Amino acid sequence: MASFYAAYDAIAEGLKEGIGVKPFITYHPPCCSEWGTAPPRTSLYFGDREWLSMNMLQSSHFLDPKAFVKSNRFSFGWKAEFNYQPIFDEYRSEPIRPVIDGESRYENLRKDDFYLKKGSWASYDSRNSAYHSIFAGAAGHTYGDNSIYQFF
User: Where along the chain do its domains lie?
Assistant: First the structure.
């Protein structure tokens, strides 16, 4: 697997040079891990980078991550209903940085992404995800609604 650290370091340096001060930077990791890589948490990939201002993760939209991971040839994915687990892990990581779940259960998005028979995440699920994040130490919450997401 290719290393993209030099590219990310150059982007961060370019931002700093361009605006004249250290910018606030985070990285939005993917939902799942490729084989042979760490779970998708920023601290595990960029934790040693001076330019990283905030940790982020994507706790996913998966009711059953094992099925999605297997069908897409990934090695790991978060179970959406337990989003507090990776948040708490990031909260305890060092160096200490704020953490946010950049993508949790989007309201009206189908569970396990596009499987019709499992239904969709409801407003309750989105609120529950927010509570889990905050009580596990997150600095905030990112709300998503599939109806708005489709504008893109």
Answer: 16-147
pLDDT for residue 113 is more than 70? no
3-class SS of residue 89: helix
Beta strands of 42-123 (E only): which ranges?
55-57, 76-77, 99-101
Cis amide leading into 86 (omega within 30): no
What pLDDT score was predicted for residue 17?
97
Q: Does an H or E element contain 33, and which?
A: strand 32-33
End-to-end, the C-alpha distance of the chain in Å comes to 30
Distances (CA, A) of 31 to 13, 51, 69, 78: 26, 23, 10, 7
Q: What is residue 14's predicted lDDT score, i.e. its pLDDT?
A: 98
Measured CA to CA in angstroms, residue 97 lies from 9, 35, 40, 77, 94 at distances of: 18, 27, 16, 23, 8
